[in-house]
Amino acid sequence: MTVVVGGQPASAVRVRGRGLPGLSRTGGPWLVGGAVAALWAWAGLMREWTMRTGIDLGLYAQAVEHYSRGQWPWSPLKAQGDFNLLGDHFTPIVAVLGPVYRVWPHVETLIVAQAVLIGLAVTVVGRTAIRVFDHAGAGCAVAAAFGLSWGVTGAALFDFHEVAFALPLLAACLDRALAVRWRAAVLWSLPLLLVKEDSAFLIAGLAIACWTVGLRRLAIAAMAAAVAGFALVVGVVIPALSYSGTYTYWAVTGDARGPVSSPIGMLGNLWTALTSGSAPVTVLLAMACTGFLALRSPLAWVAVPSLLVRFTSARPEYWGPESHYNATLMVVVFVAALDGWRRHGSMLSGMPGRISARTAGATALVLALVIGWWTPLRTIIEPDAYRCGDRCSAAHEILARIPDGATVMADTFLVDQLVSRTRVHLVAENLLDSTGHPIEAEWIALDTSNRGTFPHESAGYWWGANAAQSSGYVPVWASTTGFILLRRNPAAAKAFLHMYGTVACAASTAEAELCTTPPGDDTYRTRTAWCGTVEPPHTVHRCPPGAYLKPYRP
């Protein structure tokens, strides 16, 4: 059986390789891919330098560091003891970065690697577009549009994630489908199972696409591979490696009982995702960035199962166009749009074929830039994105005081800055890790400014007072921009409490002027304090925004 996607078999398409001067059919996509990789590497490195990255970059750096030594991907950020990240999410493909990290053991390695993987995907999409358009300039314009699309931008500007590996694999898979080599497409899709467990839904989508073009047996085989792979990973592999012996993310879909036992919960989540506007906006933006041509291709089915899983999740961050969750969606809609253009190019009748291709390529690039202006893409041209201001400088100063090889607790926005040279844990409530065990560390580094709700708003003084009084930590450095560094020193902590006593509590922030200030001594001073309690047995003191702590040096 001859299956045609795009009106004619790939063998019938003759590529002349014409286009803009200096762009060739072979070299053009590599040039665009390299430029996009350089752009996102530079933007990512600037984000890391200006303290705009966080815990996800730290988690993957710890995993790759252990991979580089031939070990399981242990993560001290998750637990005081051994916590295997493969028992959290199944992402073994990240291990390929181990040898590179061994040569250059820094978080910047991951940022550059992610940019290179995005660039490879751009190159594949560009080669596919040139084959479809029969025009190098138009194909390179589409490649650039893909590399600057809002979904790819969201991934490039959000730390590091395993999804970067999925982009070139999925692009190669769909390229083979567009060339009417569906069996090769299915084979290219199988390594996606090594990217993350939910990549199985992309393979399921490919199976649906195979079915719609009449390849029933191949569709059944692909669907069986997707179902079996997902079941094996979440039912056997992850529980075997998890500290809890279970797949802890079942509750993300449906309710806490899991997706199988709560179809009503899944439907409720879907209804909320739709009525809140988040899900419709995601779909609308995805289709709009390619002029809705993706809807004219059976390859659009590849995205459907993944979108349904996201929209039935109980976590709103999965529904919208934020972060890295839409990167693979961009691959699908761009390649599907190429197929849609080839199938229905007659809608541009009246123009010579080459002009139509140029128009399509230019339109794709304009749409990417226009839509990108309302998404993270615009942040790369903002001057503040590349300026290390007072807060950034203070953060670098406080972290420089921590010696290499030390054991540190830090908040979610500081851990990635420490992970390459210290053993760093994520500070959490009651100084317990994610498994409920106490964290032992010599240093605590915190950003006390209100940058979100994780672990707590204005958490620094909460932890500073609690740790200093209850756990033997004393403040050794602080800045007026909200950063504080504490060190564990039982003798100094005892002297500190003897000198200053328990931090005073005010009945309300309105009547509070200070927590404790011995006459004539302001080495330890806070303003406008609020106190609460947690059980057992710590007394918690939390200062709202505007309070500050001056250095105390034992």
From TrEMBL:
Protein name per Swiss-Prot or TrEMBL: DUF2079 domain-containing protein
InterPro entries according to UniProt: STSV1_Orf64 (IPR018650)
Keywords: Membrane, Transmembrane, Transmembrane helix
Transmembrane segments: 27-45, 110-130, 136-158, 199-215, 222-244, 264-286, 293-312, 324-343, 355-374
Pfam families documented for this protein: DUF2079 (PF09852)
